[in-house]
Design brief:
Layout (H helix, E strand, L loop, with lengths): L11 H6 L19 H5 L23 E9 L4 H20 L28 E6 L38 E7 L2 H14 L4 E10 L27 H7 L16 E10 L1 H4 L4 H8 L34 H5 L12 E2 L2 E7 L5 E11 L3 H11 L8 E11 L12 H5 L1
Antiparallel strand pairs: 1-3, 1-4, 2-3, 2-9, 5-8, 5-9, 6-8, 7-8
Helix pairs in contact: 3-4
């Protein structure tokens, strides 16, 4: 839950009707601490640059609110797909920069919903676009250029996946410092792609404040996102997150990253019946401080070499299975970007809350799936249920004002 990996969401009808967007194996964490001050005070964050070799929203410090959404692409041909991606790029470029929408022509439909007022604030907005395995079928002639490791997400042991909350041709990850900015952006993009993108599912989330400090706490009461790769280290990101030249991927994919989305419901009622000591041994950390059971602060690194039999940190604890901290498993780490979700009550009358899990990595098999295999059958899994999600490939970034998302993919 705190060291490595396990969104699905609302159905199509709910997506269309809703206007508000509230947002392994489990590593319930976002890799950051409390929601930024801007999210709590209403002060807008500076614009996050849109142009660059990689999309924003991957190594960007996590904003306070997020929505993850999946779509089916319904354009009839390759030219329509190119037009769709160009239009998405242009609109994302405007929304993430903020500004005043053009004046409406007399008698024409309004160009903006107005939910943010006459000037659209950027408020730290990022929109990250991914493509799923099904986009590379015969419709658009892309079968020969698909990312080498893209496929539909399989069911892992313990999953209870719902057919209507899985996969998709295209994913959008929208993050900002305020909920209404996320809602406005998704509504705006949905309007401008209507008839070309069919909503499939979504999950909405938020970051919890640090209490009392440090990393955020998840719905289990434990601190999250403590053991993430260093997002400021270009060397580490090139090794773990970004697709590199010579990696067996098509040339257009260089600079992109594999995205995993999973909804992880926490069975809170059952979890709360456990004694605190049992909870801590299942996770491998102390609930109050976030420290590993052999440490004193949340940033202390567990030393498994001094505890080979698991007397202090159990061998089957979550943090030990997820990240054994050996040379052989160092390359399996992922960059997590998870959010807490709360959908009220499930059909069984119990809480439907947990983790809208997102992570990025260079290689799905070497990283996310390797962690999942280590976590299968972990005792903590008795309190977790994954219900949906998917694998996507986050496209390389947009280099300048003349570039657009997916241009290299469609040029090959």
């Amino acid at each position: 839950m705190t060291d490595q990996t396990c969104p699905a969401g609302f159905g199509r009808r709910s997506f269309v009707k809703a206007t508000a967007l509230a947002s392994g194996a489990l590593a319930i964490g976002a890799g950051v601490g409390a929601a930024p001050a801007a999210a709590r005070t209403g002060r807008p964050r500076a614009v996050i640059p849109f142009h660059g070799p990689h999309q924003a929203g991957i190594v960007t410090p996590a904003q306070g609110y997020a929505t993850f959404a999946s779509f089916a692409v319904t354009v009839p041909d390759r030219a329509g797909l190119a037009e769709l991606l160009r239009d998405l790029t242009g609109r994302i470029r405007f929304l993430t920069a903020g500004g005043t929408p053009p004046a409406d022509a007399p008698g024409a439909p309004t160009g903006d919903s107005g939910t943010l007022g006459p000037v659209v604030p950027a408020d730290g907005l990022t929109v990250t676009v991914g493509v799923g395995a099904t986009l590379f079928d015969r419709r658009y002639g892309l079968a020969g250029v698909q990312p080498a490791r893209i496929r539909q997400m399989p069911a892992f042991r313990g999953d209870r996946l719902r057919a209507g909350e899985l996969h998709g041709d295209l994913s959008l990850q929208l993050c900002a410092d305020s909920r209404d900015v996320v809602s406005h952006a998704l509504r705006d993009l949905g309007r401008r792609t209507r008839g070309r993108l069919q909503p499939l599912w979504r999950i909405d989330g938020q970051l919890n404040p640090a209490r009392p400090d440090g990393a955020q706490r998840n719905v289990m009461g434990f601190k999250d996102g403590i053991a993430n790769p260093d997002p400021s280290s270009a060397r580490e990101l090139d090794r773990l997150v970004w697709v590199q030249p010579g990696s067996g991927e098509p040339a257009w994919a260089e600079g992109g990253s594999y995205q995993v989305l999973r909804t992880v419901r926490v069975l809170c009622e059952a979890w709360e019946e456990l004694p605190l000591e049992r909870q801590e041994r299942l996770i491998g950390r102390r609930r109050d401080t976030g420290a590993p059971l052999d440490g004193t602060t949340e940033t202390d690194l567990p030393d498994y070499t001094k505890d080979p039999t698991g007397a202090v940190i159990p061998l089957d604890s979550h943090i030990r299975l997820a990240n054994p901290r050996t040379p052989e498993t160092d390359d399996s780490r992922v960059l997590r970007r998870g959010y807490t979700y709360d959908r009220g009550l499930a059909g069984d009358g119990r809480l439907d809350t947990g983790l809208a899990f997102c992570c990025y990595q260079q290689d799905l098999v070497r990283q996310f799936e390797a962690v999942q295999r280590r976590l299968e059958g972990e005792p903590l899994g008795d309190f977790l249920v994954c219900t949906g999600g998917g694998y996507f490939f986050a496209l390389p970034g947009v280099r300048d004002g003349n570039d657009w998302l997916g241009r290299g993919m469609l040029a090959e």
